[in-house]
Amino acid sequence: MKIITHLASALVLQVLALAAMSYIAPQESIAAFQQQTTQRICSFDPVADLLPSLPSQRSNSLLAYLAKEGFIQNEEGAWVCYVNDPNKQDRYYTLFKVQEIDGKLIASSFLENGNLIAGQESRSINFFMTLVERHMNTSQENRQSVRKYLETFVSLVQEKKIEASRRGFLFDQPNRALVLYHSLSTGELDGTAITINIQSPNNLSAESVSSEIKTSLRERLKLNR
Q: Are 210 and 67 in contact (CB under 8 A)?
């Protein structure tokens, strides 16, 4: 009788173990799927989250990798993230934008009427840090400090503790990288923006390098006159 009891107990344990495994496996698959579908920085649409990324665009831009994050390149050569206005039907506006200007990377996260939309705070940090990791000479420890600085800055903006101005805050000395919260003077979006300015980014495009060389030559000619 004892042997039968032990066998029954062992059988129950095996059944419970199999049931637990069969429950964990789907849960892990669901978690992995959810993580996979929410990794892109520019993907605020539930339907878009389920769709695969667009094929990489043929571009000489060193920012072309952002296509995998849901960005597209506009006619001006800037990489932008468009989102649907949650308050107005059939209205889209630019949420994120980055472009290379005179050898500098200028990246912005736009706030309509001074407010961040749901999910914008964390994705702004991911957006900025993607550029930091790709275009700045930083160590792992330094990147952690930069992330903490930017997280704090964006949080203070969200809490209305920083007013819009033209003042830039240095968040990385060696790379002369600045972050600022400022009003918008042009464009359709009526509001403000959080912008980072990487003044000496790595891997400048050939066009920018050529432009910098030409500028340097012009300055030398002026000095020689």
A: no
Instruction: Round to whole Å and give the CA distance between 97 and 82.
Output: 9
State how far the Cα of 86 lies from the Cα of 63, in Å rounded to an integer. 28
Which residue in this structure is represented by tokens 């060193």? 62
CA 15 to each of CA 18, 19, 20, 27, 173: distance values in angstroms, whole numbers, following the listed order: 5, 6, 9, 19, 61
pTM for this predicted structure: 0.70
Q: Measured at the alpha carbon of residue 223, what is the angle toward residues 217 and 225, in degrees to the nearest 5?
A: 105
Q: Which amino acid is at 104?
A: K
Which residue ranges in the chain fall short of pLDDT 70?
1-39, 46, 48-49, 53-60, 86, 186-190, 203-225
| Secondary element (H or E) of residue 7 | helix 2-37
**How far is it, in rounded angstroms, from Cα 147 to Cα 132?**
9
Structure confidence by residue, pLDDT tens digits, 23-46? 444 344 333 433 444 468 988 776
Neighbouring residues of 35: CB distance < 8 A, sequence distance ≥ 6 = none
